[in-house]
Amino acid sequence: MESPESFSPAEQLQLTPYVTNTERPVFVLTNLPEVIKGALFSRYSRSTLGLRTLLLREFLQNDEAGFQAPSTHQDSRLALTKAQSFYDRILDGYGDDSIGELGGAHLALEQVSILATKVLEDARIGGSPLEKSTRYVSFAQQVNGDFQFYKDPRVLASTQAELYLKTNRELFRTYAELIESVRDYLRKVLPPEPDQPQAAYERSIRARGFDLLRGLLPASTLTNMGVFGNGRFFEGLLIRLRLQTLQELQDLASAAEQELQQVIPSFIRRAESNHRHFCSQLNFQQRSQDLFNRWVQPQTLELSTPQSASVELLSYDSEAEIEVLAALFYENSELSFAQARENVRGMSDQARENLFRQWADLREHRRHKLGRALEHASYTFDIVGDYGSYRDLHRHRILTQERQQLTTRLGYTIPESLIDAGLESPVREVLEKAASAFEVLEEEFPQEAQYVVPMAYQLRWSLKINLRSLMWLVELRTTPQGHENYRWLAQQMFQRVQEVQPRLAQLMRFVNLEDYPLGRLAAEVKQELRKQSS
Fold first, then answer.
1. Which of the residues 51, 60, 487, 533 has the least number of beta carbons within 10 Å of its own beta carbon?
2. Which residues have CB under 8 Å from 274's CB, separation 6+?
3. CA-CA distances (angstroms) from residue 383 to 389, 394, 462?
4. What is the Cα–Cα distance from 44 to 527, expressed in whole angstroms?
5. Is the pLDDT of residue 67 over 80?
6. What are phi and psi of 47, to 5 degrees?
7. Which pLDDT tens digit goes with each residue over 79-110?
8. CATH number of 310-408+457-533: 1.10.560.10, 3.40.50.360, 3.30.1360.170, 3.30.750.24?
């Protein structure tokens, strides 16, 4: 297919560095700053011209834009500055938040606490984060003679500095000291089979060992993460970080802004601390918090007590079965939704049963996703689970999750394998010490005290999710190679739905309800073998 636009040989020469072709109607922009790409795309909505023509007229042949092909790093920065000044006027003229979604950046954040990563990952749309794994990487290494954990400046400037440092160091020391003991235990209970490559087997033992010990890592643990996001995402992220009370998050906002200014400056202007938009957001949050403090806190003085992990189904739509089938009829017919709903109500009970069963049978594996009709059914869960499992489930996006503050009051979990290995005593001792330290720190530093809470401690959070998203979550998180704690939580979510709506639950046909005390290790071995043979 040829493009309706044509360019002279000279124009083609100008365009070639910046587009993947000059002849066809489908092409990719290359070698342009994100601000320029975003601004160009924004012009689609108000111009009859094609993008390559706009690129020529408004940039490459426009002296006001000041753009020229950069030959050095300094030239590139100069070109960006000129382009920013020119296109800020265009972006301001459109006044549309969605323009900020037309350019993006890859932001690396290193040496940030795992407590901070949850705030960084809270946004659901526009950003794709990836964090260093506690499963494949050891956190026992020391740098400059100390373990790698966040040292909060406010706490270190107080009389509680020694308690804070000692608690974190003891947790890391126990984690490091138990690594070999855990591996020895795993080799004993699951020895390699004769045909298993030793290297693959040892990598599996290593990963499983880190899994069992991750509960000892405190929320202060330093990690690395990368985030790809569009400009609108990063604007929201910077604002969210600046509205937090923790010093680490404030510092991250400043550092991230400094780097993003070099790539997508026009898209994050409203997140600057002196911008009227941010000041308005800050004022709004302060007034909101004052309101909640007056109305909510007096009603919630009771503190939590230790309890077992649990999944409670708080609410669901009793008409969900009808709504899902009505949506299915609607998208495959010319009926109004009301007519589709009446058609479903007129079906016999057996007919509905047959339709759901045949629909489920179409799926051959979990990546066969059923349609958006399933989004007409939703469920709200109240969950208590260890912080490590929350961190895993928190990554899912098409849902609403709200967490409470991390404390030690809900108790902790110790993997059965650690108990079987005879390591319960040192693990329990260091976890109890962390709880005592948390209670002391919380009196003076209610936010910063979270840093000494190990991942084995439990957190309460709510999760509202539609059936389509729930299907993906529970089928993914119950695979044998999943961590045993979040596997159990995902299984419980499925079972709660199965108890009240079995016909809808049967659509989730790839949920694995088996219990594998060492199943993840066996799955790891198989996965390593597949990697070697591929």
1. 533
2. none
3. 11, 12, 6
4. 46
5. no
6. -145, 145
7. 566 666 666 666 666 556 777 888 899 999 99
8. 3.30.1360.170
